[in-house]
Amino acid sequence: MHILRSIPKEYYIPISLGLLFLFLISFPLIASRYLIFLLSLALIYAIWALGYNFLFGYTGLLSFGHAAYLGVGAYTVGLLIARVGIKSFEILFLAAVLTSLGISALIGYLCVKYTEVYFALLTLAFGEFFYALAFKLYDITGGSDGVSVPYPYLFGYLMDTKLLYYVVAVLFVILLYFAWKVVNSPFGKTLQAIREDPVKAEFVGIHVKRYQWYSFILSGVYSGIAGALYAPLFAHIYPDLFHWTTSGEVLFVTLIGGHRMFLGPVLGAIIYAFLRSYITAYTIYWPFVLGLSVAVIALIFPNGIIGSAYSFIKERYFSKTVVSK
Amino acid sequence: MLSTLPLFILNGLFYAATLFLIASGLTIIFSVAGILNLAHGAIFMLGAYLATLTMLTGDIRLIIITFIIVPFIIGLIGLGIERGLIKWVYDRESEYQLLLTYGLSLVLADLVRMMFGPQPISASFLLRESGVIDILGVTYPVYNLIVIVVALFVGLLLWLFLDRTRLGWIVRACSFDREMSSALGVNVGLIYAFTFFLGSALGGLAGALIVPSTVAMLGMDVNALIESFIVIVIGGLGSIRGAFIGSIIVGLVRSFGIYFFPRYELAFIYIIMAVVLLIRPRGLFGREYRRV
Amino acid sequence: MAETRRDFLKVTGAGIVGLAVGAAAGYYLAPPKIVEKPVPQKPPEVPKEPLKIGVITILSGPGALLFDPGLKALQMEVEKINANGGILGRKIELSIKDSGGKPENSVDFFRRLVEEEGVEFVISGSTSAEAIALAPVAEQKKQVLIIEEGTVAKLFEEVDTNPKYVFRINNYDILDSTSLAIAMKKIWPDVKKFAVIGADYAWGHDTWDILKGAIEKLYPDMEVVAETWPPLFSQDFSSHISTVIAAKPDVVALVLWGGDLVTCIKQGVQYGLFKDIKGISPTGGEYVWAAGTDTPDNLLMSTRYYFTYPPWDKWWPNREFNLEFHNRYPDSHGGWPGFNCNSSYYAIHFLKAAIERAYAIYGGWPTQEQVTEALEGLMIPGPGGYRYIRPEDHQSLGYAITGLTKQDPRYGFAILDPIEAVPPEEMAPPPGVKWKDWIKHWGEEYL
Fold first, then answer.
1. Interface contact A114-B277, CB threshold 8 A
2. With C325 labelled, which of A209, B280, C384, C423 sits at a CA distance of 20 to 30 A?
3. C166–A contact, CB cutoff 8 A
4. How many domains does chain A have?
5. Is residue A324 part of a domain?
6. Residues in B touching C240 (Cβ below 8 Å)
């Protein structure tokens, strides 16, 4: 503990990020190829959920169409590789960021005019609009069969599963750090003020709609980045990426971890990705087991796994007064 | 088109009938207990599968009491779910209620697969036996008319119940203000349990009614859930009248849309929702939405 | 948190240094790439442990109706092979995964099976989307993949144009439609106006495109008077049926499957759809079993295998396979094996035959490459007759079956009777030719 205390507080974050990065980079040394694949998937989910939580956890807006931006990122990358023949991942990545930025800016602008459940419904409708596009523009998107996506190249190196893992890990650490900076910046605090009371926030001079819009765009871009990584990981894209059930998944991932905690969505994503993969692999009655696990988590962790663990530890070890029940 | 116009109206109403029954169950539970029950689609599917058990026997008396027994059993299942699980999450954040009912929907749908297997079950005794009639020179199945009439009748009963009975008033009072009702001596917990019974029974009835003219098959829960959800959005969340009008709009637009724009059927329901939300953000009969 | 610009830079700098250190460490710690050299060596002995085969299929959701019987047939055949000593003395162990029809689950399972569970071969009975997602992964992993369904034509026309490790052992979309068109020309030579009720997804549109192309060749003055496209798993077809009736076609094509086809036929009967209009359905043959006695007579349907063909008295493998399946699973899928069961039979027996053939040539347990060589051009007997794997594009072809529905009280559902089987060579493009180019010159001899 003394060593810990002697480290200045402002180094906590870079040190823990550095440690996390060291762990992620050295993970392939100890893990099988399959686990690398699975962790890539989990980290992509984590990036997506992290972005989702800007809007949901920090701004208090429940989007039910966030699969749209994952899909936009994935389809940008997938279609540019398969239909246009662009192989360089640097360009593809940039294109995915730009398209998800543009589309989330446009849709966000229309959606933030609405609040609460109507916001959720409008995002749902737009998500389904993109689903219908991917489904119906058969000649471009291959309809429900989807498109097979060849591996892109990163700086001339073939981006196979292993290189992709390193890319995902690096981006994850950068985006995690950036997200931490954002939520602790004045901008992030403004978002939280809006979440707590939009009326009051408006009253003290915050342009609520504009901040909600920024938050929407930010989370859209994170989702787009997740999508840009998703396409080469599965080497295939198909319309269900846009479907409302996929949108539901990111909400549930965030809830499983706990949307009140910064790390909640990240850990929720990792837990969910591994849980789902192992349950589906070991029983053909996986919807039953998965549904049961989700229901149990919802019942016994009122703030998500991380949220509830945090409040439990805080209450148990750090609270000065004895809480009587 | 002109000679077949009544046919398309009837087709639209037939579609609206089952949609209304499912949606009214969803909206009652939402308006009173404040829970968006994502397991409602699975409840509907369970009703359809249970109904096939008696409908395959071909015994007409047994089949008729199916329409009473199946809703009752499904209602009891809904009651059990409420008392066993949902009761504990009323004061949680509404998103965790969603998570719970989502998990439940997976579990229920998979239970159906375990019990009934993956093959679609067709039990068309009632459809065949009720025959067809001639409407302006076009053949139309009588069973579709029965479904429309039953749905209208159930809608009427629901309205009478909520509007004219003491219990109905209490239910409505709970949907308006939970604390106030509780302070006035209403056992709110009991009312919630009753709502789940009623809502689930309506879903079960919809399942039993639709089975003769279609098949009970896996996956029917997902479509039913999203479509009935959109219907209650169009009509205004929590409003039975809204669900009624909303389902008729969806049914008729779909029916005529299939004739005029057959390639875009996939998007009809979302287009209707977007249009309604842009014109009337609260839905047709929605009151100010507040978080329960 | 009042943070000055300098602090921010410091923290950022520390983060970047951390990243750089980590990257460098990762680079040096990464294991060296193993370069595989072809070393001449004695062929490997046949291992003692069981032969593990991965199965990725759909057992949940609406698609399960097709693949659940297929899995049963596969397990039945594996049991029989094991009882007779397995493959070269190795017992077969199946590792079964349920993808639920989702391509990403399939890819996940494929990697898990190959990289984690160490299976030697993978059989995939799944959708077209899953086949398109899986094929490139199998090629890249150099892992034999046998596709039972996933019948989309573009799998070998666009996605995997030069397949090495991927094989498809079922008849595919083209044959379903071309054989149907030919049978229709024979039975109803004078029809003119067509309508379609098609499932609104890739298979529905593909199949209708091919069917329309074939019909245009055989009926040069054909016209399409109505098209309706219900989404998958619709519960109500009344408006589609009314639209079709209002357009007064001679023939309606029901490009639907599973519960959708059953519902559409049931409601169609009630609306009098089949009174004046002839019904055809590609691949519909076995789905109408679930409709029981509701199916009207004289609907023309095609399928990829039908349990009554080849006739049992002339072809004993079919009789044996059917009776065994029927005795084991009397409640499954009308009690009789469907086309997916047939392809399960061929999937496992093609593998067995290829391994044994490679063993006979190389004298050891074969590598993946040796199995692919042995599979190419292989021909084996089975319930549906002799099947052959084309070496050029790894597509296997068997009889294309068509027939008219006819209620049969012995079964309790409508069977195809009379049945017509067309040799596949004329029904599908030759290897390397895309169907769109091929169909332009197809069918002149049938006019």
1. yes
2. C423
3. no
4. 1
5. no
6. 258, 262
